Amino acid sequence: QVQPVESGGGLVQAGGSLRLSCEASGRTFSSYSMGWFRQAPGKEREFVAAISWSGHNIYYADSVKGRFTISRDNARNTVYLQMNSLKPEDTAVYYCALDLSRLEYDLGQSRKYDYWGQGTQVTVSS
Fold first, then answer.
1. Phi and psi at residue 121, in whole multiples of 5°?
2. pLDDT of residue 41
3. Which tens digit of pLDDT belongs to each residue from 30-50?
4. Strands 120-125 and 58-60
5. CA distance 100 to 18
6. Residue numbers of the chain with a pLDDT score lower than 50
């Protein structure tokens, strides 16, 4: 069993920054592709960013390109989401997800992922 655990959410003013962290247990973290998704009230869950297990492939939703950066530290079993220039429309619960397949495609699809964290709230005030 592998359980991702998110942290780092909070309240920030528009234009500010936050860094989310997701730590996943397991001795083979370096073989997991990792993704970030978010869900705003009344909306469906949407893809934000993903990084493949090799680190060679990184993907972003168009809405966050140039503002968010995903990275991973395999020594710490952790993936990060650095969020800059935050906007009120970034307000959502952010979820970390883990893919066991080692297949580096469809990382923008929620069905790709095997384990999900509980989520962390990000609120951006205007």
1. -80, 130
2. 93
3. 999 999 999 999 999 999 999
4. unpaired
5. 27
6. none
How many Å apart are CA 73 and CA 41, to the nearest integer?
31
| Tokens at 79, concatenated | 């993936």
C-alpha span between 61 and 48 (Å, rounded): 5
Instruction: Return d(Cα 71, Cα 90) in angstroms, integer.
Output: 19
The CA distance from 16 to 64, in Å, is 14
| Strand pairing report for 92-99 and 68-73 | unpaired
SS3 for the chain is: CCCEEEECCEEEECCCCEEEEEEECCCCHHHCEEEEEEECCCCCCEEEEEECCCCCCEEECCCCCCCEEEEEEHHHCEEEEEECCCCHHHCEEEEEEEECCCCCCCCCCHHHCCEECCCEEEEEEC
- At 64 the pLDDT is 98
The gap between the terminal CA atoms of the chain, to the nearest Å, is 40
